[in-house]
Design goal:
2 copies of one chain form a homodimer.
Chain A lengths: L16 H11 L3 E2 L2 H7 L13 E4 L3 H14 L3 E4 L16 E4 L6 E5 L4 E5 L4 H8 L4 E2 L10 H6 L7 H4 L2 H4 E7 L5 E3 L13 H5 L8 E8 L1 E2 L3 E8 L3 H13 L6 E5 L1 H11 L8 E8 L1 H17 L3 E6 L2 H12 L1 H6 L6 E4 L9 H12 L6 E5 L7 E6 L4 H20 L15 H8 L1 H14 L15
Parallel strand pairs in A: 2-4, 3-4
Antiparallel strand pairs in A: 1-2, 5-6, 6-10, 7-11, 8-9, 8-10, 12-14, 12-15, 13-14, 13-17, 16-18, 17-18
Chain lengths: 471, 471
């Protein structure tokens, strides 16, 4: 049996000695071909084993990125942008070899325009770092994938997180990007105006393009005033369906919840073990409300009432900032908490998103599908958006488990797609969902994507092999 | 002196007789080459005189659109999608001849998914029609350009309007599109999932592409629950600066106003004349607040306080639905009201949008620039987004006035661009802003747009000559 995560690198292209020499001369200690460095840059949080790039360059500026791209373009050498390595679908594997360009040292906050509610950062700035640096401004940046990802990476995968139900995803929150194109030119995709009808939406074209159309080096995003009042709540339900129905009604009534997260009993167990919490091991919702004192109170009362009608109990409030921080840290660490439930495992995380009216069917269907699994599985997610994750903990060396996990993943995705939903709400396609995307988008839409790719990157040097098959 | 609105159609391509015969045979009375019909389809609300297409087809379905596109593709004949003809920058002029494909009879609401807060419509459905058909659902669609535009046209120009400050633009509110590509294929750009990371964002690529990349035939948009409480207010200010500063502070404090519109004294005069209102002829803000009873009250009190600090007076409330409707109808008709201040005139409308901190400078700068004008000018706009319009009423037959208007327009745009703003917040580029876009985006970004255009429409049949010069 072929291991389903054993990716071929038969298309690996050579890295010419002259290019290695040129990069080493130019970047000195910021250029590396050490095996450990290459391994680190050839994998992500997906279950795929590393396929290392041939070399790694640590860039410090947009101009340096452009230099590397121009060198790669000359010799048609692949180039893969790297942020913190937290992607989940094999985005970083160097399936055609080449150079990993690490942007983590491009971590400067370039311009806080507090009066405009915008900030411009280098692509390597992480979401936590940004919010730390914004603390004195009274503003915050809401997008929060589980990992402390970089804003460049979050742009490249069209990431979101727990706050998306209120604040939107990277798609809605990026105002403009600085991008190095495949021929080493530097473009800025938009002004800082809040809205624009000025030509093709290049910003949105690069958001979610997973490094295949250009290297994002700077990101301008929207900021929000820290709400006057914030309140969070945890509530347990007798069944998963009760929890999910509570969220569906919350959304349908237009309650502007900031966060509404579902966690199954197994996820809560993992969190308790990992984060030393004592949450009741039952289907659970985490809510957070943002607004003025009175609007937060109003939202909370309405949601509490809806929850009660669905058997919600043990409503616990976290109004003190430190309690809320503990709660949301626990939520953000849920993926890693799950991983620790099976030492040595790797996780496959599904990422379907469906119209809200189909959420209950989608999530209970996923539960039924997973009930047959021989390994631990958990459900959690951003249910207010119709998006949830099934986490499948498999032994990465066991091809049979991997095969089974892929089969279950397939079923969950197909169920979501049958409900006019998508195979990926926020993680992206990478290597792992190429087949799903083909079915979901259809051959003619994929053909448009291919034409765009060929038009912008004719030699296919930018993160080749990701999102779709080019040939 | 060449008249600045005299566009050449030297690039006009022939419409083969065989194609005329084929279209007539296929579409019967829904095919026309009558001069009046052609004239109507070769112009918009811009000051440009009509450049008529060679023929007009009224399509009834996506499949019919695809048939027309395939016929045009065969003979490399240009094709221009037409909604209601309310665009403002010469989008519809047939500068290379060809066929206008009128989608106004594709006006069916296809699927109201109330429980998902989405609706799918044919591209010819107008915003007013849609909200009329949604009345019984308790939901509404907020995007409201001045005209009763079609949702296809609004998608194609990335339109917005008075509600954008709270609900976003077409960019944020379209979930997915059905599009006929240049080779007559039909694609659906996305599922109905609220968020997705599934490949390139084709939805956003077509939004704002002004008919140059494909013909939008169906649109799925987000809906919102009609707020529990709505309240509107009108307030006058001693100076324009006072009004604008009130809005800036409202936004910077994060007050979730639904609408915040500025109208100068001249605009109010025009509205009073046109809509039989008796508003005081002074710099004025129209506000609207959406939410629960208590949150609306809270927002209104806060904004009232801010307005008072800036000398706001005569705070008038419109809480009854019929009063609000009268108020917003007056606002939406402001453009047409302005036009009537000078019989026989045509208007140039600027459309700059700047970061909110620069709004006061941008709008007072525009006022100074316009003070030299020899014809009537007005200022109004969606100031909560940093977007406003200067309306310049010129005699369309007077080349000197047109030249002067263009010079003033230039200055206003350049001022906005010097503030990291854009030449167009919501109207689009069309023919009129090709030069501005070039400067704003830069040659390398325009080059990417050109490559995308060539990749998706190699024979340049889709609304050729718009957004950028291709050669």
């Amino acid at each position: 049996m072929n291991h389903p995560y054993a990716f071929s690198d038969a298309l690996r292209r050579p890295l010419p000695d002259a290019m290695i020499a040129a990069l080493r001369a130019r970047f000195g200690e910021r250029f590396s071909t050490a095996q450990a460095v290459r391994d680190h840059h050839g994998r992500d949080e997906s279950p795929f084993p590393a396929i290392p790039p041939d070399a790694v360059v640590y860039a410090h500026s947009t101009e340096e990125v452009a230099e590397v791209v121009r060198l790669c373009a000359q010799d048609k050498v692949p180039l893969i942008p790297f942020g913190v390595g937290s992607s989940l679908e094999g985005h970083l594997l160097a399936v055609q070899g080449g150079v990993s360009i690490d942007l983590s040292q491009m971590n400067k906050v370039l311009a806080v325009n507090a009066e405009d509610l915008t900030v411009t950062v280098q692509a390597g700035v992480t979401r936590k770092q940004l919010n730390e640096e914004l603390k004195s401004t009274g503003l915050f940046f809401p997008i929060d994938p589980g990992a402390d990802a970089s804003l460049g990476g979050m742009s490249a995968t069209r990431a979101s997180g727990t706050n998306a139900v209120r604040y939107g995803t990277m798609k809605e929150n990026v105002l403009g990007l600085t991008v190095v194109t495949a021929d080493g030119k530097v473009i800025r995709t938009a002004t800082r105006a809040k809205k624009s009808s000025a030509g093709y939406d290049l910003t949105r074209l690069f958001i979610g393009s997973e490094g295949t159309l250009g290297v994002i080096t700077e990101v301008t995003v929207k900021l929000y005033p820290v709400p006057e009042a914030v309140s969070a709540a945890v509530v347990n339900f007798p069944t998963m369906a009760d929890a999910v129905d509570t969220v569906i009604q919350t959304i349908q009534l237009g309650v502007p919840v900031a966060r509404s997260e579902f966690l199954c009993d197994q996820t809560i167990r993992a969190i308790n073990a990992h984060s030393k919490t004592t949450l009741r091991e039952a289907p659970t919702l985490f809510f957070e409300f943002h607004g003025t004192e009175s609007s937060v109170k109003e939202q909370a009362e309405l949601v509490q009432q809806l929850a009660r009608e669905h058997g919600g109990q043990d409503f616990e409030w976290a109004s003190r900032p430190e309690d809320r921080t503990r709660l949301w840290n626990a939520r953000h660490n849920a993926y890693f908490a799950c991983l620790q439930m099976r030492p040595g495992c790797r996780a496959i995380s599904t990422d379907t998103c469906v119209p809200i009216s189909r959420l209950a069917d989608s999530i209970s269907g996923a539960r039924r599908i997973l009930d047959t699994a021989k390994f631990p599985t958990m459900l959690l997610g951003h249910v207010g958006d119709g998006n949830f994750h099934a986490v499948l903990l498999i032994d990465p060396d066991d091809a049979q488990e991997a095969e089974e996990a892929e089969r279950l993943n397939d079923e969950i995705v197909r169920l979501a797609q049958s409900m006019d939903g998508t195979c990926t709400g926020e993680h992206g396609v990478g290597l792992h969902k190429i087949g799903f995307l083909e079915e979901e988008a259809g051959a003619d839409a994929i053909d448009l994507m291919r034409r765009i790719k060929r038009a912008l990157d004719p030699d296919n040097i930018l993160n080749p092999g990701k999102i779709f098959r080019l040939d």
